[in-house]
Design goal:
With about 325 residues, this protein is mostly beta strands. The chain has one domain (about 5-320): Beta Barrel (Porin), CATH 2.40.160.10. The protein is about 0% helix and about 60% strand. It contains no helices and 19 strands. A 16-stranded antiparallel barrel has the order 2-3-4-5-6-9-10-11-12-13-14-15-16-17-18-19. The chain has a two-stranded antiparallel ribbon with strand order 7-8. It starts with a strand and ends with a strand.
Length: about 325
């Protein structure tokens, strides 16, 4: 986004004052959008159109000791929506996300290529992720989470997330996970990665999630393949998933993509449980500060229920300034 305003300051205001930063900068950027969204095509959901608005404030500087300090605030819909603080140096970066964010594994739960959203996204039959959206093997998340990202070492980057006790829904104890991404210098365009995390669901129930992926970009094409596993102490709650996708940059402005995501339920579930299959077609067009993008997604046997088939679409026109 283009900055509306950039002001040199002698010290960071507010929460940064205590670290005695100098030569700080403040930038303000914003966006507005119109979205046409039908999260379940054959269900009556009311007006398909909505407006989004976002005003972003970024403040950054460096302490006398060379420690980088940055703060981000987003006003969305007239209220403070997202906010975080990041410390950085030669050792990497440490972000404290006060408003909530994806964990290290949650950020890579599906990195297969697309031009707008994942194959399982957009669809939501009742406004909740616990019953109205397709199953996805992911990581933890929530407010007040620490996220450390290492510097790249020979193409390898490590990310570690930690959330203190009681910070996330469905987590009885503190939560942590990690992710490793490796882009070998000798193979341009190739990235492989792995992530893992454990949840203590209750006193005697644990859940362990893991995922591995490979992506390769050549010419205008980007291809990706990913496998994930969720081992649950309640065996009938265990899951396995496979995802793949391909995107193609027609030119600098236009991209198209196709993605597929499949979740297999544990064999111990009832005989009426079926494999959840999601497919998505997406496209995007960018011109200056304007972006037009959208996706048409379909999920069959959602959450393992036979013949629970849904189709959804979303199109978005946004402007950055």
């Amino acid at each position: 986004m283009n900055n509306l305003k950039k002001i040199g300051l002698s010290a960071l205001a507010g929460s940064l004052a205590s670290v005695s930063a100098h030569a700080a900068e403040v930038s303000v950027s914003g966006s507005a959008s119109i979205t046409m969204d039908r999260t379940a095509k054959h269900l009556v959901t009311g007006n398909d159109f909505s407006m989004g608005d976002s005003l972003n404030f970024n403040m950054s500087g460096e302490t006398d000791g060379g420690l980088g300090v940055a703060v981000f605030y987003e006003i969305d819909g007239g209220s403070l929506d997202d906010y975080d603080m990041t410390l950085s140096g030669d050792w990497g970066s440490l972000k404290f996300n006060g408003s909530g964010s994806s964990s290290a594994m949650g950020a890579v739960d599906d990195v297969t290529p697309n031009a707008y959203e994942e194959a399982w996204d957009v669809l939501d039959t009742d406004g909740t992720a616990t019953s109205g959206s397709p199953l996805v093997i992911g990581g933890g998340g929530g407010a007040n989470m620490f996220i450390y990202t290492s510097p790249s070492v020979s193409g390898a980057t490590l990310t570690v997330a930690y959330q203190n006790d009681g910070g996330a829904v469905g987590v009885a104890d503190s939560y942590n996970d990690f992710a490793i991404a490796y882009s070998p210098e000798m193979v341009d365009g190739l990235t492989v990665g792995y992530a893992s995390g454990d949840k203590n669901i209750s006193a005697n129930v644990d859940q362990s999630n893991s995922t591995g992926y490979i992506k390769y970009a050549v010419g205008g094409f980007t291809l990706g393949y990913q496998v994930s596993e969720s081992d649950h102490d309640t065996k009938t709650s265990s899951l396995d998933s496979v995802a793949y996708g391909v995107s193609y940059a027609v030119n600098d402005d236009i991209s198209i993509g196709y993605s597929y995501h499949e979740v297999d339920m544990d064999s111990g579930r009832s005989t009426g449980t079926f494999t959840q299959e999601s497919t998505g077609i997406s496209a995007s067009y960018t011109m200056g500060g304007m972006t037009l993008g959208g996706a048409i997604n379909e999920t069959d046997n959602m959450r393992g229920v036979d013949a629970s088939d849904f189709e959804a679409y979303e199109f978005n026109l946004s402007f950055a300034f």
